[in-house]
């Protein structure tokens, strides 16, 4: 059993509240980082087709399995359906590719990465595709989200995926999906940090029995290496006076305060680190108890600053 707390999904499955995020983990270091994280006690690994490192994630997982550090049933392996595979006939192909890369028989969680259906691109043409849709630039497919979700539900029925979720969805899209689904989403993954707190979305989604996973918990820190232009619009959260004051009070790194701000509000988090001591520290954030006033003070930093916005890619009106 991992050192972290577990949260129960609406299908009865319990998953770790603190996982390891695989976004931006380089291929050169990925397998060893995954292996080390498992040794440290991590059991949930949040990956995606778009991250381009699933083969290496699989190498780390399978080495840990073969070395007897952990059993497969103790791990919770996550991936996400990329935009170019939304058509129902391509959803199962996408999962087969993921499982082949990971060298696993099933996934624990499979998300729809974005509610955006791009034109299908064959694996042999380009993989991962990113925003590539072919020589004509951005192209889209007329695929309703309900059709994609129906194909996701079939993966559960076939035993290839245990839980399914949605990522980067708005409340209206979720409400529409709930009207016609056979299987309610188990999770919603969203950008979530004090500069983008999204309290109303989180309150409503949790009221529907859907667990929320926050990514980019450290806000602008997650986007510095991407040279994101919005990073300059705010003080780094690790240096924000509100965060540093609370961190000094508890004698912890500011990152631990940010993680606990999320987990204390029943949100799952997926930080990553190259440092073993930080990996271990992140797993113990729930030992810290912030006051209600501190939670409110951190939440008060919200300025609706979104870094991961499809409008910036191709004027896709997801959040307007």
TrEMBL record:
Tell me if Nucleus is a UniProt keyword of this record.
no
Q: Active site at which residues?
A: 51 (proton donor)
Annotated substrate binding lies at 113
Query: What Pfam families has UniProt attached to this entry?
Result: Aldo_ket_red (PF00248)
Alphabetically ordered keywords of this record:
Carbohydrate metabolism, Oxidoreductase
Q: Name one GO molecular function term.
A: oxidoreductase activity, acting on the CH-OH group of donors, NAD or NADP as acceptor
Instruction: Enumerate the spans annotated as NADP-dependent oxidoreductase domain.
Output: 18-301
Q: Where is this site: Lowers pKa of active site Tyr?
A: 80
PANTHER family per record = ALDO/KETO REDUCTASE
Q: Which family does it belong to?
A: Belongs to the aldo/keto reductase family.
According to UniProt, the name of this protein is NAD(P)H-dependent D-xylose reductase (XR)
- Tell me the gene name: XYL1_2
